[in-house]
Amino acid sequence: MVCDDASREFTAAFGGDPDGIWCAPGRVNLLGEHVDYAGGLCLPMAIPQVTVAAVRRRTDGRLRLHSTGFDVVDVELGERVEGWGAYVAGVIWALDPPDFHGADIAIASEVPVGAGLSSSAALEASVALALANLCGLPADDTGRNLLARACVRAENDYVGAPTGGMDQQIALRGRAGHALLLDCADGHVEHIPVDTAAAGLTVLVVDTGTGHRLVDGQYGSRRAAVEEAARLLGEPLREVESVSALDDPMLQRRARHVVTEIGRVRVAADALRSGRVRDLGPLLDASHRSLRDDFEVSCAELDSAVDAATAAGALGARMVGGGFGGSVIALCENGDVPRIETSVTAAAAARGFPSPVFLHATPSDGARRC
What is the spatial distance between Cα 28 and Cα 263, in angstroms, rounded to a whole number? Predict the structure, then answer.
């Protein structure tokens, strides 16, 4: 178990035992991609795969971070940290927890890095909940909303990745058996049951092996376009019915994706409230077309996986995450999963793409103490 891995890693790196061990999940977003920073509606769910932080407080003002396969961090508390450790140091900076004078932190993870499953938010959330528990910060639902917002500040202002807030919210506020209908304007949430088992369905995750980076400028340019479109239209895009008033064709396409995607989330939420999980299939297909054609954040590897999955019988499929690589989700009849996996793998091989890795996503709990 990955929690045991983190404990062993902590002892090997620092000696002794941690004060505690916390974990937070990755996520898949059923619908609502690239609308969180527009104050839109998202429908993510936490997945079983988690990132784990084993933490022990220090009293000497030092921060020591260890994770297998990554550079060791050993700095004075408050000293600027780059690389993977910035996600941890950024959370500490954003939370500024009371009576905190340093820590030893060992990280272990089963959330694939760069797969569009929000490994960064899982890391941030596990550390944020650890600091909250160790330093007496609120960790009820209201407190978790505040922790998530601090994690967003860490990623935006410390790391320099202009993400929205969906990933951190689901990592901290997810609930087993449910998707999280998140209003990104005010942080309001509704937990909506997602009973794929009763429907005989699987949410299949396809990690295409094509990593992506949110700090390479492409994500930021999309966010800037959305903000400019809202400025020109004079109101938030979630309140817009038509984008035809935009003269710039590119801005019109970007805004059209946001407006239609928020609409798809509303339809999906209504379907799930009624137990109609299968109704998500066509919505996934429409979302992928919008992300590919209007928002232009897909790529050949993602399109190949989507096309192969639907050709083999998936009820619907789309890219998930920031795009430019990462993963695809496909809604599948349980009995069709082996055929769909074979089809996606063969399509990737035929085009010389990396061999995909498959996960089955079941809605899981958010951050917690191990």
Answer: 19
Q: How many domains does the chain have?
A: 2
Do 347 and 312 touch, CB atoms closer than 8 A?
Answer: no
- CATH number of residue 176's parent domain: 3.30.230.10
- Residue 6 sits in the same domain as residue 20: yes
**pLDDT tens digits, 335-365:** 999 999 999 999 999 999 999 999 999 999 9
Q: Specify the pTM.
A: 0.92
The predicted-structure confidence for 43-77, as pLDDT tens digits, reads as follows: 999 999 999 999 999 999 999 999 988 889 999 99
3-state SS record for the chain: CHHHHHHHHHHHHHCCCCCEEEEEEEEEECCCCCCHHHCCEECEEEEEEEEEEEEEECCCCEEEEEECCCCCEEEECCCCCCCCHHHHHHHHHHHCCCCCCEEEEEEEECCCCCCCCCHHHHHHHHHHHHHHHHHCCCCCHHHHHHHHHHHHHHHHHHHCCCCCCHHHHHHHHCCCCEEEEEECCCCCEEEEECCHHHHCEEEEEEEEEECCCCCCCHHHHHHHHHHHHHHHHCCCHHHCCCCCCCCCHHHHHHHHHHHHHHHHHHHHHHHHHCCCHHHHHHHHHHHHHHHHHHCCCCCHHHHHHHHHHHHCCCCEEEEECCCCCEEEEEEEEHHHHHHHHHHHHHHHHHCCCCCCEEEEECCCCCCEEC
Please indicate, yes or no, if residue 75 is contained in any of the structural domains.
yes
Dist CA 179 CA 264 (whole Å): 15
Boundary-marking domain end, from 138, 170, 192:
192
Residues 176 and 205 in one domain: no
Give the distance from CA 312 to its chain's centroid.
Answer: 27
Catalytic residues: 167
